[in-house]
Inverse folding.
């Protein structure tokens, strides 16, 4: 069994691309990833592709073969859908395909087009990741769902909107040098606290933007990388996935994310590492409170203690364990189906030193990507390590 | 105008709430769920029976939503909450109280109301 090496990765500029189709966005990312990898496209044997709202946003289903065609591949192509964890789940399928010896070169990616349908329709499209009968019909939106979780967290463990504002301020600051980021704008605690409310206690700056974008990566075996003299020092050494009841109302806790606990435990066990070995992480901060859940589920903090991490400077770029050096979904943007692979690319670039924030983690060897779908009813965690 | 499609047991469940005979499904190990269910996801038991829903529940969490989906455009701002009713929890709209006065632990009753925007039915909680 070979841990897949990341031979190439690419993300498009995240933001509004009103004139560009999903297939065009993915073509840009996929072709660049293949070019960076230096791999003959004829050697690619499979594509796993994440996408969530293609039917609603572009009236386009069956996107697997469409996207293979868009990057010039004639391979079995599978679209993977797990809401906002679609691309993380696609990564997991790619890892398994390489590990079980079915393929030596696999392309994994994702894309989402969201801004063309406007805020109201995008809010509606995102909402269908919740339980239609029992949540959507009771007015649930995704900011609303995370607001319910945030209020429950505050009630159970303490914490405040001001603590969450520190998460937003941190991630905006991290994104300032990320040329792919949708928002490169510094904000203050006051900006975050005074922003319009979306679903109390969450405001505009607690929420990630609606985003168009794509990401792609080329995974290969260690043997193929050596044989073809590829520069691929980063391997995916651990993969994990967890699930939970779809509806919040059916869960024992509103202030914990056990699907992420399970994914992290599996990924750490797979890689043979623990939370203390991790130098940094890219986590799914679709809302500021989501970052708090993520860093607790990843074992960096006990329950109830993650809320103070950003305020205490522990997860900032000069802290002990930086979180979301890319700017996270919060500032980088969240093209839903692409996010998990964009996280994978970011972690690889931070580990190989090519990311603009790599100076924050100069000697790092272990990075983690945490990608959550819905209200964390689906979660993937991937451990990446620099190989000698 | 055609009659809107029914959603099976969900609509039957709303009917039961509306008529004051609300119920939930309970497996033989006492785990509670809302319909439709064929199996208890916790213990895999398939012997589910209808049990009377308690008349009052307690708000477990709540939020006032100001940016809604198009189906709730004219309802906004509105309060969505999860309320615990014994072995089950239910998500619904809180009405009959100022949104600023809703708090975790508030005791509510369950009913069915109409959404302002579409006129469609929705679960509604009111203070008791």
């Amino acid at each position: 069994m070979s841990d897949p090496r990341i031979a190439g990765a690419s993300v498009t500029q995240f933001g509004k691309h009103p004139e560009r189709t999903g297939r065009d966005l993915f073509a840009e990312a996929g072709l660049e990833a293949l070019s960076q990898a230096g791999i003959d496209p004829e050697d690619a044997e499979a594509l796993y592709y994440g996408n969530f709202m293609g039917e609603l946003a572009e009236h386009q289903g069956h996107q697997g073969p469409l996207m293979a065609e868009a990057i010039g591949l004639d391979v079995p192509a599978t679209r993977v859908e797990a809401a906002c964890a679609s691309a993380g789940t696609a990564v997991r399928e790619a890892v398994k395909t390489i590990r079980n010896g079915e393929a030596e070169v696999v392309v994994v990616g994702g894309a989402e087009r969201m801004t063309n349908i406007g805020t109201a329709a995008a809010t509606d499209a995102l909402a269908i990741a919740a339980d239609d009968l029992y949540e959507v019909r009771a007015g649930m939106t995704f900011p609303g769902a995370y607001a319910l979780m945030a209020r429950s967290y505050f009630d159970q463990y303490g914490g405040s909107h001001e603590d969450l504002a520190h998460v937003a301020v941190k991630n905006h600051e991290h994104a300032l040098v990320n040329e792919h980021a949708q928002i490169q704008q510094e904000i203050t605690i006051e900006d975050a606290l005074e922003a319009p409310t979306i679903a109390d206690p969450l405001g505009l700056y607690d929420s990630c933007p609606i985003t168009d974008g794509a990401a792609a990566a080329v995974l290969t075996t260690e043997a193929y990388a050596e044989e073809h003299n590829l520069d691929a020092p980063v391997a995916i050494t651990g993969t994990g996935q967890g699930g939970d009841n779809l509806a919040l109302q059916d869960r024992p806790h509103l202030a914990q994310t056990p699907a992420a606990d399970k994914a992290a435990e599996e990924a750490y066990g797979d890689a043979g590492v623990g939370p203390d070995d991790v130098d940094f992480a890219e986590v799914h901060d679709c809302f500021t409170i989501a970052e708090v859940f993520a860093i607790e589920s990843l074992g960096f903090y006990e329950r109830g203690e993650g809320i103070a991490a950003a305020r205490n400077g522990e997860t900032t770029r000069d802290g002990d364990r930086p979180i979301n050096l890319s700017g996270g979904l919060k500032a980088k943007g969240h093209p839903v189906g692409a996010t998990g692979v964009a996280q994978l690319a970011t972690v690889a670039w931070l580990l190989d030193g090519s990311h603009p924030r790599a100076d924050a983690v100069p000697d790092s060897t272990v990075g983690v990507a945490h990608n959550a779908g819905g209200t964390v009813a689906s979660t993937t965690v991937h451990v990446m390590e620099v190989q000698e | 105008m055609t009659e809107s499609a029914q959603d099976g047991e969900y609509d039957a469940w709303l009917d039961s709430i509306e008529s004051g005979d609300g119920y939930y499904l309970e497996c033989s190990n006492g785990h509670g769920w809302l319909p439709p269910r064929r199996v208890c996801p916790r213990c895999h038991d398939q012997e589910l029976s209808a049990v009377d829903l308690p008349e009052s529940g307690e708000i477990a969490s709540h939020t006032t939503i100001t940016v809604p989906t198009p189906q709730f455009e004219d309802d906004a701002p509105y309060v969505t909450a999860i309320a615990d009713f014994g072995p089950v929890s239910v998500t619904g709209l809180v009405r009959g109280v100022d949104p600023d006065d809703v708090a975790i632990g508030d005791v509510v009753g369950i009913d069915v109301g109409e959404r302002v925007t579409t006129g469609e039915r929705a679960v509604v909680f009111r203070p008791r």
Summary: The first strand of chain B starts at residue 23 and ends at 26. Residues 1-53 of chain B form one domain. Chain B touches chain A at residues 7, 10, 33-34, 41, 60-73, 75, 78, 80-82, 88-93, 104, 115, 120, 122-123 (CB under 8 Å).
